[in-house]
Amino acid sequence: MASAMNEKNILYEIEKILHERDNWACRKSFNLLYSARNSGNCDPKEFHKNCDYKPETVTILFGENGVIFGGYAKKEWSIIGNFIKDEAAFLFRKSPDEGATLEMLNIMKNQENWALYCHENYGPCFGGGRFTSSDLMAFKRPWYGLCILENGIFNLNGTSTIKSGVYCPTKDGTDLIGRGPMKVTDVRVYQVEVEKNPVWRRIPTKEAEMEELKMKIDGIKPKDELGVSHLNILLIGSSRAGKSSLCNTLSVVLTRKLDRVAETGSENSSVTNKLHCYKLVCKTNDQLKIHITDIRGYEEHRGYDYELEKILDGELKPGYHFDDTEKEVSKSDLAYAAKTDNAIHAVCFVADVTQKHNQQLRQQFQKIKKVIRKRDLPIIGIATKLDTQNHDFEQNFEHMYRDTKCEYKVKGVALSLEIQANAVFPVVNYTDDEYFHEKKDFLALIALDFIIQKIMIHIKELKEWKALHDHKDIWFTRNEEVLKLTQPKFKNEVMQIIEKEDNLEYCVLENQTPENLPSLILFCQLFLAGFQIMQLEGLLV
Description:
alpha+beta; Rossmann fold; 3 domains; six-stranded mixed β-sheet; 16 helices; elongated
C-alpha cells in the first residue's frame, strides 16, 4: 500500500514545481479523483468517469520497488481517441534512495503536440506517436480482462519506457521511468485545485485580541488534579535554527522589555552548549507557570544519544554541558529532585526554513523524533526566518498568513515532523530590534497559546490513562497499546461495540477483558474525538 507519508511528500514536491511555474500566484491543493486500489482493479472506464474534462491533473504510480513515478497534465483527459497538445505537461519520478529528490522530465522542443493521448480503452497516457508506444501508459483494457489487485500488487499492462522522443530522457540514461516492471501498489489521479481564500490561517488583527491572549497566558495555572506545578516545554532544532532567539522573543512579548534572557550567536555559529531552563515572567515580573528548556542544537555528528531520554524525563540538571563528542551522562549531572517536576510536557521543533538538511542531519533528526515518539509527547513546529523569504513581511507580518510561499514552507516543516500543518507556526524572532513590533507579538503569542492548549490536553489524557492502570510505566505505553489495534481481534471487537452502543467507554469497561482494555479504551477515545473508523484503520494498518 502506498504510504500516506510517501503520498504527501511527492505531492509536496509537485506543488513546488507548479508554484514556481506561476510565480507563487495562488494557493493550491490536491483532490483525489481516482484510485485503482479503491476500485480493486485498473479499469479505464472508471478512470474516465472520474477524471475526464477536469483540467490540471497529476497521475502517480507507487512502484512495488519504492520508485514513485507519474505525470502532470494541464489539459483535460477525454475519450476522443487522439493526441492532445499540452505544453505544460511533464513526467516525473523519485527513487527510494536516501536523500533522493524528484526528477522532472519536461516536453522536448516542438513535441508538445504528442504530450497526451486520450482513448476510452486507456488509462492516463503520456507521450508516444503514430508509430511509437506511449512513454507512460498506466494501464489499458485488454481482451483478456482488467488488471486486478493480487497480494497487494497491480501487475500493470501499460508501458513506462521513455523512448518516443516526446519527453526528456532520464538523468541516469535508463529507459524505464519506474526502474523495472510495472508492478505497483496503487495508481492515483489528483486534480490540482486553486484555493479561493487567499488567507491560509487567520491572525488576530486587533490589539484587544492580543491583550486577551496575554491575559490568558498570564493566568495559566495547571489544575491540582493534573498533578503538575508548571508546564515544561523543550526546544529542539539544528544549530542556528533560532531556539535561543525564540526564548528571547517570548520574554520580550510577555514582559514588554527588549531584554535578552538567552545568549544568542551569529548566523554562522551556535553558543548554546548547556542545558538552560528559562522561567517565563509576565509584565509585572510575576513568574508564569511555564518553563522553557533550551539545549544545544543538533549537528551532523552530534545529537543527543545519551542525553535526550534523560532530558525528557527531567533528570538532567540545568547547566549540563554538551561536549562536542557524545558520551555517557555522569551521575553528578543528574538532578536530585523528583523528575516528574521537570519532565517535558511538549517538544517544539524550531526549524529554520532557509536551511536544508543533508543526509547526516536527517539521520540525527530521525533518531531524535523516534525517542520523542516513544514518549507520546505533543510535537509542535516553529518555522523561523520566514521574513527573509519575503521582504513584505518586514512591513506587514499579517501578509505572512496570505503568502503562498510561507504556507508552502510551513507544510514542509509539518511533513518533516509528521504532524498536521495546523500544528506548525511561523514566528519572526526579536533579535537586535530597538522597537516593539505588534505583528511579531501576535505570531509568538498564537504559537505559545497553541502549545499550552496541547500540553493541557496531553496531561489530562495521561492522567485518565494512568487511572486505568496500576503499572508504573503506563505513561509511556500508549503507543504500544495503539499497535495492538493492528490485530483484527481488537479492531473487530471495537467496531461491534460502536455499532451497538451509544456509551462506548462504559460498554468497554463493563464487557471487555483486562487484556485488551487499554487498546479498546484508547480506540473509543479517538472515535469520540471525531475520527472515522476508516481513518483509524488507515492510520493503524
